[in-house]
């Protein structure tokens, strides 16, 4: 089976800094794939490269077998790919509804746009209650939901969510993940999710990639990686797992 999204040997640099060095991964239709890694590992850069936000100096990124154009974010969005950026970035003075309408800018006609709004409201009843509130007044969890809702306005087939749990209370994070899984279940949405911690994703993901220093260190099914030991070793760059078990006690991975 060919992958829906396939990155091979992608390299991205910021000036002299090599942020992605030969990054390869694939996401199949209907999968929930998590990319986990520490601060500065290259997770956000990987998503930016896919979404066309940063130039790549080498490698290929394919969606349904077609090479994605580099640095053409709008064109890529039209191909059914949507990014929920790290840190949410809602427009604080605009209402919930207005924020969602901004997300639907690619939709030409009013009827489609109204249908998309209704669909998002259905998935996020909490947003519906806050429809006319300025987004800046929402809680962190509500802003995260708004940010996801906005990404859904273009009716994407593949959604990338960059650190959805950042700064949110555990129960709220669970609620966000439940909605993401419901979207997968009901709409066949495919998800690529960045996280710094493997704690939750072992429950929610189908497959996991561990990234460090701009390259994939380990990947496998959540089932195979369930005990977390191999993930910890890859995440922190340990040679073996047992001897270092104490080092990772209480650490985020
Ligand atoms: N706009 C930029 N200009 C220069 N360097 C950058 C830029 N964005 C990221 N970097 C650097 O590229 C590397 C990868 O960063 P990236 O943000 O992709 O990591 P990350 O895994 O998303 O980290 P975090 O968990 O902190 O979000 C880091 O060394 C970072 O400092
Ligand atoms: Mg990041």
UniProtKB/TrEMBL annotation:
Residues 5-238 form the ABC transporter domain. The keyword Transport applies. The keyword Magnesium does not apply. Keywords: Amino-acid transport, ATP-binding, Nucleotide-binding, Transport. One of its GO terms (molecular function) is branched-chain amino acid transmembrane transporter activity. It comes from the Bacteria. Belongs to the ABC transporter superfamily. This is ABC transporter ATP-binding protein. The lineage of its organism: Bacteria, Pseudomonadati, Pseudomonadota, Alphaproteobacteria, Acetobacterales.
